[in-house]
Write a structure and sequence with these properties.
- The structure is a single chain.
- 28% of the residues are buried.
- The chain has a six-stranded mixed sheet, sandwiched between helices. The protein has a three-stranded parallel sheet with strand order 1-2-3, with helices on one face.
- By secondary structure, it is of the alpha/beta class.
- It starts with a helix and ends with a helix.
- The chain contains 20 helices and 14 strands.
- The longest helix is centred in the middle third of the chain and has 36 residues.
- The protein folds into four domains: 173 residues, Rossmann fold; 51 residues; 198 residues, P-loop containing nucleotide triphosphate hydrolases (Rossmann fold); 68 residues.
Length: 588
């Protein structure tokens, strides 16, 4: 529809065919490339630090001046050093390394990965590194094209918090509805060749768009009815006694500009599952299952049972073993140990996020014909039309389809086969918002059993009856969303990142509306007092070091003094963050 093109126009990569784009003088714009590429021998951390090169240059100059001051502290050198130090502090120089590490951790890198060569990263990892660099870059305007791609739920939550707190201007293209609800304050919709502006988040946009469409539809109907009445009057009277009146109305009608009929969202994918053969009540029992590789298991001691009609969401960080688990459950991989007991033989529809089950040398129609050789072309084309493959689209080569088109075709194959159990690995990847909504509606009406991996929090919220959360080699099972949220809080994960839970529709945190116990309140008050004491100590030492900078003496080890000063600044920033977190937990 032109969303990415619009970003490139704003960035200046493309020039508009007509019209003009006005930008603030010397506006710094940061863009997120969909396919980043890292050259050279830089590590992940070194590559991320490149976003702070302006601070590194100041730091290098300060180090050079420290050497001069150590030998002969001349006043002009001290003045220059003081200027650089002030600029360095003003721009956050004393904490840029800590911010860089925090950004890398936020987008899902472990500290072990900091030393990994950036050019050896996978495509998804390169995208996450590029995102971290962009967020750290010294720019006024950020253009983000699908920034939540390749991020797990924790990382998406971290990104939401970062973007809500930044003072930068953001222009974001995204199909993540939960993300848009949390971050966006204005929605710009491109529909065909029209452009609509909605002042609110995604939920407001949905409501206002429906109301706007209803108003436009009513206006069109009223005008159409009026035009029809005028035309009828003209036909009946143009040759009769009321010729002049009819001619006057004809002239009036010629000056009226007919309203364009509001376009319905009929081009949205819409499908449903047919009734499936009922399976036994108990579908699957998993006992003591370990998955991964011999000598290097990804997850161990997995235990849960699945009953007919249940919808299990499999969640967890990137690389935690979700896909390996799903493929092991459906028999595509062998477990390391443990038992998988299926109650009966089931027809399974598997959606592979890599879409490898599609035949690249085939055309769209052949992908469905393969499943039912007795069906006519008309029947198959009618079925494919539900997935927006109509007319000549059914003869497109699969190899030339976009990611979204391949996803729709894969879903079409699965739905045509009408399986008793769905095993879906990231089914909403590549789908636009309309297609995601249609998939949710279809899955809610599906009578069989579903096992699905996703980072789409709307999908989890809408259809999951149970959750299996994988992290650090362990699988945690929950029979309802509230149980999962309580576990997150008890395990300390929400306290480490105190923004709202991802699975609560209104964005309310688990703590909102809950009264702290007396014991918990006393613990927090003690923690606050401890942090405040540490802040006072650190601020006192910083003040002493700043006095030494103003009254330098020869023989001082300026390098170690400066290093200590920088460490204290970082420590102080972290202490204030801890203090704010404790206050939030106390409801202050």
């Amino acid at each position: 529809s032109g969303k990415t093109t619009l970003l490139k126009l704003i960035a200046g990569t493309y020039e508009p065919d007509t019209g003009a784009i006005s930008r603030k003088s010397q506006l710094e714009i940061g863009t997120l490339d969909q396919i980043p590429d890292f050259q050279g021998d830089t590590s992940v951390l070194e590559e991320a630090l490149r976003a702070s090169q302006h601070l590194q240059r100041i730091e290098t100059n300060m180090r050079a001046l420290e050497q001069v001051i150590a030998e002969a502290p001349a006043r002009d050198v001290l003045d220059r050093y003081s200027e650089l130090q002030h600029e360095f502090e003003l721009k956050g120089g004393y904490s840029y390394r800590a911010r860089t590490e925090a950004a890398l951790l936020g987008v899902g890198f472990s500290r072990k990965a900091f030393d990994q060569a950036s050019r050896s990263l996978s495509g998804g990892e390169k995208n996450r590194l590029a995102l971290a660099k962009l967020l750290l870059w010294h720019t006024e305007l950020l253009l983000l094209d699908e920034p939540t791609n390749h991020l797990d739920i924790k990382s998406i939550e971290w990104l939401e918090k970062f973007l809500r707190e930044t003072d930068k201007t953001l222009v974001i293209v995204s199909h993540d509805r939960f993300f848009l609800d949390r971050v966006a304050g204005r929605i710009l919709e491109i529909a065909g060749t029209t452009f609509q502006d909605y002042r609110g988040n995604y939920s407001y946009y949905l409501k206002e768009r429906a109301e706007r469409h209803a108003r436009q539809q009513k206006q069109w109907e009223l005008q159409s009815e009026w035009i029809e009445k005028q035309q009828d009057y003209i036909r009946r009277n143009i040759a009769g006694q009321k010729t002049k009146q009819a001619q006057s109305r004809r002239k009036l009608l010629a000056r009226v500009r007919p309203l364009e009929k509001p376009k319905s969202r009929a081009d949205k994918i819409k499908f449903r599952f047919l009734p499936v053969e009922r399976s036994a009540r108990y579908v699957l029992a998993v006992r003591g299952l370990s998955i991964g590789y011999q000598g290097s298991p990804l997850v161990q001691s997995i235990q849960f049972e699945v009953q007919r009609g249940e919808r299990w969401a499999i969640l967890g960080p990137n690389g935690s073993g979700k896909t390996t688990l799903l493929r092991t459950l459906i028999g595509a991989r062998s477990p390391i140990e443990g038992e998988l007991e299926w109650n009966q033989s089931l027809d399974i529809g598997y959606y592979d996020q890599q879409l490898q089950d599609l035949h690249l040398d085939a055309v769209v129609l052949d992908e469905i014909r393969e499943l039912d050789s007795s069906a006519t072309d008309g029947e198959l084309r009618s079925f494919l039309a539900q997935f927006l493959f109509s007319g000549e689209d059914v003869f497109k080569s699969v190899a030339k389809l976009s990611g979204g088109e391949k996803s729709r075709l894969m879903l079409a194959r699965i739905i045509y086969a009408n399986p008793q159990l769905l095993a879906l690995d990231e089914p909403t990847n590549h789908l636009d918002i309309g297609s995601r909504e249609a998939l949710e509606a279809a899955l809610k009406g599906y009578p069989g059993t579903i096992l699905f991996i996703t980072h789409d929090r709307y999908l989890v919220e809408k259809i999951a009856t149970h959750l299996l959360y994988i992290e650090d080699g362990k699988a945690h099972v929950f029979d309802q969303l509230t149980s999962f949220e309580k576990w997150l809080e008890a395990s300390g994960q929400q306290s480490r990142d105190p923004h709202p839970s991802p699975l609560r529709a209104g964005g309310l945190s688990q703590r909102e509306g809950q009264k702290l116990s007396k014991n918990k309140l006393e613990q927090l008050e003690k923690a606050v007092a401890d942090v405040e004491r540490k802040i006072a100590d650190v601020e006192g030492e910083i003040a002493q070091l700043e006095l030494s900078f103003q009254n330098p003496t020869t023989g001082t080890d300026w390098e170690s003094t400066h290093r200590r000063y920088a460490d204290l600044k970082v420590m102080l920033e972290q202490l204030y963050e801890d203090l704010a977190r404790h206050w939030e937990l106390m409801g202050l």
